[in-house]
């Protein structure tokens, strides 16, 4: 039996602006997503026995259609005319759950890519991305090999971007699960009364400035460019978000922000401040079990 082992990376949102709500209740976005070297792992193999046999290790997750990986496998088999094919998937979780890091979307995308390889179905990345969009708005980003991309629409209109360089990323998750659906709905209800610039300090002014004057998409991303419209919603409910940002900045991060709908907060530590990042990681791990120092994928 041939077993294919693949890694599914996490992502952070370096920029997330909500442009408005669509008639279908989705939100139009302008967001910059960056993959980082924190991975789940999937083992995929084909079986003679029909059906999808999913095992989730290191996480309390459903192993049926309640799991996006299961749904991704079923969708692939259905759309490629292989519903009688048996599939075995072992999912090893490391990316925190419901944390704004895209773990589920990444897992689903890797399942699609892996099954395409195992079955020899020959579907293009574009075709797999179209399948992925049926599962979730972030899935297409993980289907492609882009280390970073600007995303428009609901997240499916992708434009490759220059990856984040010269920064190490410190991730810390306070153990709070945040519903993406709740975050967007709450944003829609409160956007009128919340000033989007009131999130508090997010970068160290003395470290970086945009001297080029170039539009954001035409230059390297800087800590001063960090933006996440959903942060105010989640941080208003969970004060630990603001506390973690302040902690990271005090430790020497050039910028700090919540990723996605949260609750993971990340700090960007510039080249030359690795020792400060390591020290901050050790301190954070004394209070929070899920803290990671990772590189951006380039």
Describe this structure in words.
This protein has 298 residues and is of the alpha+beta class. It has helices at 68-79, 103-119, 125-135, 139-143, 180-190, 231-237, 240-250, 274-287; strands spanning 3-21, 27-47, 51-57, 86-92, 148-152, 157-160, 167-173, 227-228, 255-258, 265-270, 290-295. The strands form two sheets. Strands 1, 2, 3, 4, 5, 6 and 8 form a seven-stranded mixed β-sheet that branches. It starts with a strand and ends with a strand. The chain is 30% helix and 30% strand. The chain is built from eight helices and eleven strands. Mean pLDDT is 91; it is low at 195-199 and 205-209. The longest helix is centred in the middle third of the chain and has 17 residues, at 103-119. The radius of gyration is 19 Å and the shape is globular.
């Amino acid at each position: 039996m041939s077993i294919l082992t693949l890694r599914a990376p996490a992502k952070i949102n370096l920029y997330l602006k909500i442009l408005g709500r669509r008639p279908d209740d989705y939100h139009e976005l302008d967001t910059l997503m960056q993959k980082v070297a924190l991975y789940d792992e999937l083992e995929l193999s084909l079986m003679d026995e029909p059906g999808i046999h999913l095992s989730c290790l290191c996480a309390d997750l459903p192993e049926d259609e309640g799991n996006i990986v299961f749904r991704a496998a079923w969708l692939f088999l259905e759309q490629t005319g292989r519903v009688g094919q048996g599939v075995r998937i072992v999912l090893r979780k490391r990316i925190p759950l419901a944390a704004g890091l895209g773990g589920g979307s990444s897992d689903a995308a890797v399942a699609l890519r892996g099954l395409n390889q195992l079955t020899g179905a020959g579907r293009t990345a574009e075709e797999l991305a179209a399948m992925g969009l049926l599962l979730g708005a972030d899935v297409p980003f993980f289907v492609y090999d882009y280390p970073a991309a600007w995303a428009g629409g609901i997240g499916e209109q992708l434009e490759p971007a220059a990856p984040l360089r010269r920064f190490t990323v410190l991730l810390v998750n306070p153990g709070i699960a945040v519903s993406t659906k709740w975050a967007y709905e709450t944003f829609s209800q409160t956007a009128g009364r919340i000033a989007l610039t009131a999130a508090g300090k997010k970068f160290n002014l003395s470290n970086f400035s945009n001297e080029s004057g170039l539009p954001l998409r035409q230059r390297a991303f800087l800590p001063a460019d960090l933006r996440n419209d959903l942060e105010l919603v989640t941080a208003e409910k969970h004060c630990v978000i603001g506390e973690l940002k302040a902690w990271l900045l005090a430790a020497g991060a050039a910028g700090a922000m919540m990723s996605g709908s949260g609750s993971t907060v990340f700090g960007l530590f510039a080249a030359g401040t690795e020792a400060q990042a390591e020290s901050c990681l050790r301190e954070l791990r004394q209070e929070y079990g899920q803290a990671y120092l990772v590189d951006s994928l380039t």
